[in-house]
Amino acid sequence: MKIGIESKGFDGWGGGVDFIRHVASCLELADENNELKKHILLAQNDCFFHLKKQIIPFRKLLAQLAHREPLRWMPWKGFDEHYLRKTFSDFHSYQLDAPGNRLSSHFAYAKKQNIDVLIPCISPPPENYLLPWVGYIYDFQHKYLPEFFTERDIKERDNAFRQMLNRAEHVIVNAQSVKKDADKFIGNYNAKIHVLPFSPNPREEWLDENRDLSRQYGITKPYFIICNQFWIHKDHSTAFRAFSDFLKKVGKKYQLVCTGDTSDSRFPDYYNSLLDLIRELNIEDDIKIVGHIPKLDQISLLKQSSAVIQPTLFEGGPGGGAAYDAIALGKPLIVSDIPVNLEIEKDDRVFFFRSKDVGDLVLKMQEASQFVFNAVDNDVLRDKGKRRKLACGRVLLGVINEAAAK
Q1: Which long-range contacts (CB under 8 A, 24 or more apart) does 200-205 make?
Q2: Over the stretch 15-54, which tens digit does the pLDDT of each residue have?
Q3: Which listed CATH number (3.40.50.300, 3.90.180.10, 3.30.70.20, 3.40.50.2000) goes with 2-201+385-404?
């Protein structure tokens, strides 16, 4: 059987690329006898790629004008073919194909190559498309935090999810919460939803990583770390206020390190408002914002930290990528108690705090800082990760077999 892992639509942000890596690696492990012919379909740096980079910001401006929304320049964001090929170069059992930059070229290529199942599709193929495919839905954030979306965004997400759930035979999601929300907000639909099990697992290079990058990134004290893009729903402001209060209680013995892209296209002034908050709290010297850095550098900083803080208000999978990395590496995790995060497996290194509650987060930071956590042996992390990954891979294989048998 020939399987196509579809990366188009996931290649615009780091978390999307990480998800495709996760799907590919879980499936690779579950394919124990290497019986599947596996392809990863990547965007190509063709003429449409270069055209898109130039045109998309203007198209967004025109849409804003048409809907009488505040005008803001939104440059194209995403990863090009060279970056993606490098990112997936360690998947030796996969063939890397770059059929084009448009999703339609990927659908046509999969059909031409007689691929048996295409997974995961973030947008449905044309209605007359006969090749079996598996859809994907990320989350229903717009239903819970509508203030973070324009009316147009909300309508587009509603229509996209309804179309996906009625066009697809099978859809994968990253949490039980997403399935419950599909039942709640969409109701009767055609697709069978498959929930992928929570399966954090470390890459081998993560386990080998032992560099001390403190000096390179200006870190001079023990530190907590937040590994999120600076999007408004990640709720950095609660973490910054809590960190300020924490320092008042314990003294200025710690720093807070933040990794991640500092732009939010929906709220272009958000990052500057956070900088204002940092100045207001008088913690400019205590917070280190390092921005988007190489993944292995981020992992190195995470491993050297006292604990990972995940203050997010909404995620499509338990804890988001930051929690996934922390648990994979056995690091203490302080995470908001939103419903999806409560799907994280219980562990004495996981501390839940009441979402948006500054005081409760301070208490959990104090609690985590008072424990002495011994490093978890790499063999233990490797074994736990492998078992989780295999469980997820078997679910994916089951979905693929169901889709192929239609």
Answers
A1: 200/323, 200/324, 200/325, 200/327, 200/328, 200/385, 200/388, 201/25, 201/328, 201/384, 201/385, 201/386, 201/388, 201/389, 202/328, 202/329, 202/381, 202/382, 202/385, 204/382, 205/296
A2: 899 999 999 999 999 999 889 999 999 987 666 665 666 7
A3: 3.40.50.2000
